[in-house]
Amino acid sequence: MLQTTRSFSRTVRSPIRQVLVTAALVGAASAACALDITLPPETATFQPSDMPGYALVQRNCVACHSVQYASSQPPVMPRSYWDATVKKMKHPFGAQFPDEDIPAMVDYLSKTYGAERAAGAEKIASNSAAAAASAGVASKSAPDSVAPANADALLAANNCTSCHAVDQKVVGPAFKDVAAKYAGKPDALKQVAANIRAGGGGKWGPVPMPPFPQLSQPDAESLARYVLSR
To answer: Which of 171, 167, 156 is nearest to 204 (CA)?
Structure first.
C-alpha cells in the first residue's frame, strides 16, 4: 500500500513540475523576443474643404485610419458606398463618434473622394471659366476642347495602378496585353478611350471594370494613348 501511494504521488507531481518549467521557459522566450515597434508618423492629410464634414473626418477617422484609406478608394464610388463605410466604422466596429456626425462626414467623403467629386470639379471649372471670360481672357467652354491632362497624373488621380500594371495582370489586364489586342486597329484609340469611360466586363475575365464617366474625352484618350504605347 505504501509503495502504491508513493508511485501515485510521483505520477501526479511530475506533470505539474513539467508544466511549471514549460511556463517559465515560454515566459522567458516571450520576454527575449519582445520588440518595441514605432510606426512612422502620418504625413498625409485629408483634402482641405469648407464643408463641415472635413473637420469631423479629421477628428473621427485619423485615430484609426491612414488618410490613404480614403484617397485610395475607387473615385467612382457613390454616396451609398461612403454612407455604408462610415456607418460600418461605428456599428459594428465601435468607433466613438456621434451618429449626428455621419451625414456631414459622408457628404465630405463623397464629394471629395467619391463619384460626386466630378460634379464639384465641373462647378469649379465653370466658375473659373466665367471669371476668365469676364476678365477678357479667351476660354473654350466645351469640356472636350480642353487640353488633356498628363497621363501619369491621370493614372494617379484615378487609381488605375491598383488594378493594372504595364507588364503583368493584376485585377485587370496588363497594359501591354491591351496594346497587343488593339494593335493595328485604326480606331484603337477611340475604342480604348470609350472602354475606359464606360467600364464593363467580359472582355478580360469575370471582374468588371468600373466606369469613369467623370473623365473628359481628351483625358480618356490621353490614358488610352498611354496604354496603347506600352
So the answer is: 171
Q: What percent of the chain has pLDDT over 90?
A: 17
State the residue for C-alpha cell 462626414.
105
- First-residue to last-residue Cα distance in the chain: 89
**Cβ within 8 Å of residue 227, ≥6 positions away:** 175, 178, 179, 192
Instruction: Tell me which H or E stretch contains 207.
Output: none
User: Residue 131's pLDDT is what?
Assistant: 47
Element (H, E) at 29: helix 2-33
Distance CA 181, CA 173 (A): 11
Q: Distance (Å, rounded) from C-alpha 94 to C-alpha 62?
A: 15
The answer to whether 123 and 92 are in contact (CB under 8 A) is: no
3-class secondary structure for 80-102?
A: HHHHHHHHHHHCCCCCCCCHHHH
Q: Which of 31-35, 76-80, 100-104, 109-113 has the lowest mean pLDDT?
A: 31-35
Q: Is the pLDDT of residue 224 over 80?
A: yes
pLDDT-derived band at 182, boundaries 50, 70, 90:
very high
Enter the C-alpha cell of residue 173: 489586364
Burial class (CB in 10 A: 0-12, 13-18, 19+), 217: middle
